[in-house]
Write the structure tokens for this entry.
Amino acid sequence: MKVLYSQIKELVPDLKASPKEVGETLTMSGFMMDSFVEVVYKGAKDYLIGLEIRQNRADCLSVIGLAREVAAFYGFRVSIPSIELNIENKTKLNIKIKATDYVKRVLAIKLSNIKNSESPDWLKEYLAFYGLNSINLLVDLSNYVMLITGYPSHLIDLQKTDGQISWSLNNDFNKMVTLFGSHIVLQKNTELIIRDKKNILALAGIVGGKIAAIDLETKSMIVEIAVYNRSIIRKNSRNLNITTEASHRLEKDLDPNSADYAIKLLVSLFVKYTGGKISSDLFDYYPKKHTSPCIKFDTDLPSKFAGIKISEEDIFRIFKNLNFTIKKTGRQLLVEPPTYRLDLSIPEDLVEEVLRIYGYNRIPTNEIPKLEIIPNITPKNIVLSEKIRDILNIFGFDEILSCPLTKKSDNEFINYIDWDIVMIQNSVNDIYPNLRQSIIIGLLNQLNEYAKNNVDFINIFEIGKIFGAKAKKNKYIEYEALGVISTSNDNNLTEFKNKIESLLRLVGLNDIKYFDAKFKPKIANSKSCWDIYIGKHCIGIIYKLIPQEVKLNVYFAEINIAKTTESLLNTKNNPVVEITQKLIALDANVELNANESIFKYLKKLEDKFDKNCLWSINISDVYSLKSKVRYTIRVTYKELSDQEAKEVHQNIFNPTKV
Amino acid sequence: MLINRAKNLINDLKNDLADTETFKDMNEVWHKYLGGKGSIKLILKEIKELSIDEKKTVASLVQACHKDALNLFNKKEKLLRKEKLSEDIDNQSERLGYDLPKIGHLHPISKTIREMNNLFTGMGFSIVDGPEIEEDEYCFQRLNVPTDHPARDMQDTIYIKEPEYLLRTQTSSIEARILANYKPPFKIVSSGRVYRNEKVNKSNHFIFHHYQGVVVVEKINLKDLFGIFHILFKKMYGSDVIVRYRNKYYPEVEPGVGPDMQCFSCRGKGCTLCKGIGWIEMGGAGIIHPNVMKKAGISTSKWMGFAFGLGLDRWVMAKYNITDIRALLGGNLGYKYYENESII
């Protein structure tokens, strides 16, 4: 919302503050100044102050509303000229409100003998500050009053209507042409419309129709100002994708009482500038008069919320400046805000009123709070993720963050989990309508970007969410995952695997095994793709990628942080031992079928040993035979004599030759 | 003749020793003169043929020669050892390589989160997280934003399945979950991605990051909140940072606060970065709205809380002089592989 300094000054004549000070004052009390421009209006230097209006203060989408705010801050009165309409003709208008659930108030009056014309320069100049093009005098005055009072109005050319005018839900019309010429497709039973016997005249609270639009030939018209149930205006505006100055205001809470002043001002200007005559009684549909709540208020509350003493005198002064009605009953106040303050209903709202006018800048900012000690509830996955970041940094991996939205085709290429793709309904970017199922997408994009820019040593990782759905169960799933990608000119899978394994071991995991992956993503080399297991639980995947755009070997691993955390919580390690005897290393050869997993074999083997006597089991050599693979397994024993170690070794590997 | 041989013995030994370059050669000279069949033993065998005086003379010469020989061998051995060590040092020496080892870097968002987390955990806060696919209930309704509330305009939502499932528009959804699932008192911070249906440009992205803090205790006020912000701003931007607190509307708090930092680029004079205002909005905060507390079943007569949410991307861009928000999500953000930030 923009406001001219001269207009504020006109409504608050005692104002001494400079234009900049006014902008800053409004900023501190809740309406941030987002622009400040020196302009010329009516031939004089002026200032246009741009302000961000609080979402719950539709009353301040008006010059009058902002003038009230300035007056309240400085303790001045607002001088709004009173207007009375001289209504001699008591003819009743043929108007019917049918959609009573959605209409709070309708004010309407007929004007005839109008002489519409081009607007005067001051009006055109004024509307231009708001980016509004001049249409004609009638329409421009209507917009002018909206900016001054905050109430949009609607003008209906009576020569173009037929029969009764009514407010109803749309039952009959499939389409409408707006006064701007846009064609709108309508859905029956959803839109609140203004209509006559045959035609749709307007989408109530949003935009007028072309059929009864005002033009330079308009001689008689109905002027209406209405306040609606905000929900239907918001719903219709969103569904039809139409946002106007009118809908912007009417989808918020507007005070139906103040609509009186708006229509009086508008009609008086029509009479003054177009020579029009009032030729009907004022139609006023207002079944339930809006009243302000009476809020019980403890004057200690502002001090309690601010942490500093705020006196009762200050509270009274502020309430008075805000035009609140106050009654004192013992320690409590009964506070009744003016009806245009629809944002105030509970004591906390009034606390904010006191504090924002009193000034947040009067609350000390440099006192260190004394906060009580409370048990720590930090989940362990957060601790783990932080540790992982540090370890990967030491291993030379850079962290990146990437966009979790992606293409469907990308997901189909990288997914390795039994779940469906999660699609979003209203993506800002149609190219990326899905949530990623693996972190590799972002890492690969970054890798290609780095390669294009000649960045070398591309080893990167990301910790972030991956997403999927169980369509049948109508359930969305997300995991925090670690994705790590590494590039190399040479075959380097083992080194990469060792880094991942070192990472897992450094965070405290053991019993790490690799099994041929159950579900291999299309992007993986199917012969170099393994699931990573901790004990019996699969926690991730490691694979070599099929050849990529970059002419390098690319390796990827993804670890599910939640599952890894769970494994860690179930792991009890104590790597510390006292070495009292020499360690004894003994080898044994075993031959397995080529398709047999050495990890499964080792797992079974480990179970045979007394853990107190076992230092380590390693594969020291691998030799491929025709249909078999020969492994040399080196077992290192502790706390045993030579003879004892040999006996254990013989027993375990018997009948295999030792 | 024997006397002459005895006289020449030490000179011959000296000459032979002078020619030796290895321990092996030296051993051979040792055996030649001092061994069982060496020159000294031979002279002593032949000495019995001489007269008593000659015996005395030769014996004395041999004795002196033996003593000198031992000294000479001792010296020669030391010399050879020194030469050997020098040779070993030459052979086994290594040069320092000039390649810089690759070090990894934290993303500036993570780095900033970590700095903030360290600050808050030092004050006894817990760190929590929450889902990015969120329910309308936790993202809006429990935060005092009912279905038709105009505040929803502030956060144009990306829906998974309208109206129930969406991508969280704010990390306040974590606050709503904590309030619903834990009993006060609590002091928590959380951070993470949030999503809005916005066009992407240099200053806006449909994905960005929030840092959230919530305190619910028996007694808390705006002075405490400002005190926390005071510590946070000083820690992140140095002691000369200038911050103002203004009234701001958020449906989940009452009263609401907007902390702004004086523009670091123009020092408040107004520039393109701050859109001519001189200040940069850093987030929102306030005393938790009683409706939010009530929806979580928390008694407002006993408990009071404040919450704050910070636009982390702005904090990071200000700290690292990043001018394009898009750099934070991949693209052209890189790290100089030879530099890292100080850890202290």
Summary: Residues 120 and 228 of chain B are 9 Å apart (CA to CA). DSSP finds ten helices and eleven strands in chain B.
